[in-house]
Amino acid sequence: MIVLDGVTPPRGGTGCLHSVPWYTARLGGSLTELTVSRRDLTLSEILARSIGRTAEAHAQTCELSHPRTPQATVALARWSADAVEYLVLSDSALLLQGPDGTVTPVLDDRLDRLPRSALATEALVDATLRNKEGGFFTAAADPSVADRAVTGTVPRAEVRALAALTDGATRWTEKFHEGDWRALFEVVAKEGARSLVDRVRELETADREERAFLRRGKTHDDATVVHVEL
């Protein structure tokens, strides 16, 4: 299972000739290949290699040191007969459902723990927090950020199903507080991913004027949900 959420580029440019979709397509392609072909590598090692490969593909034409070089959040899961491995980098989420219905979220909450004052402007975030110690990390051009990801392994018998979501979909729980992670998982499992996204869109539209929940955030954000039963 692989879910990537490309980071919206700033109006001022990224120092790169390529788009965020170009970046995510290549990163995702490499992740797909390596998670299958290199079972001997950990998910962190696979992410590091994939970031490196993608960087090499445009290192000669683009300024990869630019803080807004194309980048993405990452949620990965891989399973065998014995274990489920997971990796989360930045604000996408991975939910693990146990045999008893309990849902355990795997989150990289570094961005959420930053004070609002530190996020006042894009320029301030780029200069002091983005892919920096004390800030938060995304998959961009530096393979070493893979070591910053939230990772782990659980026995296969303890996971009945998984869901990976971008932050546009987790808004149902994290911003609008319509239900906890278990309730969100039940919506996806019983009604489908489309139903969750539709619910989020309705809430976003209702909050467009008052901004009681969205505040300074964009009205609509990319929302992707992948659900797998093991």
Automatic annotation (TrEMBL):
InterPro entries: PPM-type_phosphatase-like_dom. It comes from the Bacteria. Pfam families: PP2C_2 (PF13672). Residues 3-196 form the PPM-type phosphatase domain. This is PPM-type phosphatase domain-containing protein.
